[in-house]
Amino acid sequence: MSYKVVFHLDLDDEKALSMGLVNIKNLLKMSDSSGSEIHMVANGESVRLFRKEFCEINQAQIADLNTKGVRFCICQNSLDKFNYKVTDMLDLCEVVPAGIAELCLLQTSGCAYIKP
Amino acid sequence: MSYKVVFHLDLDDEKALSMGLVNIKNLLKMSDSSGSEIHMVANGESVRLFRKEFCEINQAQIADLNTKGVRFCICQNSLDKFNYKVTDMLDLCEVVPAGIAELCLLQTSGCAYIKP
Amino acid sequence: MSYKVVFHLDLDDEKALSMGLVNIKNLLKMSDSSGSEIHMVANGESVRLFRKEFCEINQAQIADLNTKGVRFCICQNSLDKFNYKVTDMLDLCEVVPAGIAELCLLQTSGCAYIKP
């Protein structure tokens, strides 16, 4: 099977991030890498979770999933609001102008939505 | 770009409302007013947040977004459950028989779903 | 009207379950039983809520909704993670290999998504 899906984070809630990462790992096990498209979009306070200085366990998992094709997007509006710089964030993250707009576009293009 | 999206609230959580309102403001900045369609549906305890007597800051924001075409729907089932009257609610709110049914219909008609 | 919708639970949060069950009851009142399709998918910690030994009030409601065609799915990955056996769970539950995959498939097949 192939899956198109976007996971949405918006709280500074490490548990939600961990759940999302586990969800994605489980989904990858069942997925054709060819047809699948898996995104995580972080806006609001949740952008904190993607700082370079954040706990290393999640960083290793995020990097591993990224090499398997999972895309991690963080919201520029939220970086501005909380005074983070793009360079504070994990290099593998893609900065999008507005996380909410990205969530809309991905769903319109056929992605399922999951809020862990 | 134009966006079709519904934001869902169901807790008496002012932070979720504030996040939703900020999300909508950011989306409007990126949006053609012509083609876009932005809804907020409140059911369960979240209907409390749309009472006239509720804090004025959010009311001003809600009114401003409403003049820009954003639709605010509150659930009649939830009003009944918590003994609120339609007249307790902000006049600009549209009362729908069941918030959940509205969420289904909007998604079926092509709206993305976002739970702040 | 007929409705196609999936409700997603992932926390050990009885309030979210209760809200979801009330949502479904309200939706059934407005729905043609013929065309509608209503699912609840539980993954993560929320699988605890579907154990046989769990509180009886919800069990009665779940059983009643199930006789009306509502499908309750629980995630095998989550059962494994928390060391629950399928036989610990309410007999009416359908065990799916991965709750997240089920959520994707249902949305792809036209179900709206609701996170109570």
TrEMBL record, chains A, B, C:
Which Pfam families does this entry report, sorted A to Z?
Answer: DsrE
Q: Which superkingdom is the protein from?
A: Bacteria
SUPFAM superfamilies noted in UniProt? DsrEFH-like
Q: Which InterPro entries match?
A: DsrEFH-like, Sulphur_relay_DsrE/F-like
Q: What's the protein called, per UniProt?
A: Uncharacterized protein
